[in-house]
Amino acid sequence: MMSTDVAASLTQSPPIDAIYIPSDEYYEYCHHSPMLKTAQFTSYRLTHKTPSYYRPAITNLSRTQRLQNIHSTASCKQGPGFKHTSEDASRHKDSGRIQKYKMAGNREDKVPKHEMVHFEGLLNTERRFAKFRTVLHTGLYSQLVAMEVPVNGEIGDEVHTVDQILLFTSGRGLATVAGKDQEVKAGDVVVVPAGTQHQFVTRGDQPLELITVYSPAEHDAKTVHKTKEEGDEEEDNGKDEAPEWSQKSKKENEDAGLVKESGKYD
């Protein structure tokens, strides 16, 4: 016989406090036994006296699916109360794009092949790298680097011994080159000649994103720095040096057969 409370729940909207939002402690249970997780959620459902079939949006996954994925931390995050948002979907899409970019370029400590490298949409999308610096490609005479400078952040007041071209793709900032200030925004390009002091800082409430071309390379081919502080530390400790082969002259590369005017290679 169906209780009065349960019968009433079938015709009424669920109370706000019945929406289950898992706590941090809940996530820690992801590595415990399936029985523990099932008992935990079943106990919660019985407390509110709401049949599982009445509100599938709370469970999101069937019990069978739940047990099949119990050992996956990711699937645990998608348990009761988990809701995908448009921001989550965007981040997931951007994450896949970033991995695609990293796979496209030469990120190994070796001379790149004589073939095209294509970065689709690199300049016209907000990438959300969430990394201060990511080297995407290193060639014999240049290097392509993606950067995301956080809100209230800066690239650093510095001088490079190589040419640098900065292509801004998102956000706003202030460029200071050789003592001259210039507001910059998405779509702008700034050239910093070798040996010129420069600084770039973020303006506004959005990160400043840009693509930098160094000529020749300035960083290790595999460099990924989550923060400016991490990058500064590696540079200070000599852990972020450009590959030796990327610092050769045109004559050295031609004499070594790495560059041929014929464009023919074995």
TrEMBL record:
Domain (Cupin type-2): residue spans on this chain: 147-214
One Pfam family, short name: Cupin_2
Basic and acidic residues biased stretches: 84-94, 217-229, 239-266
InterPro entries per UniProt: Cupin_2, Flavonoid_dioxygenase-like, RmlC-like_jellyroll, RmlC_Cupin_sf
Family matches, as SUPFAM superfamilies: RmlC-like cupins
Residue ranges of the region described as Disordered: 74-94, 215-266
PANTHER family according to UniProt: LIGAND BINDING DOMAIN PROTEIN, PUTATIVE (AFU_ORTHOLOGUE AFUA_6G14370)-RELATED, QUERCETIN 2,3-DIOXYGENASE-RELATED
The protein's name: RmlC-like cupin
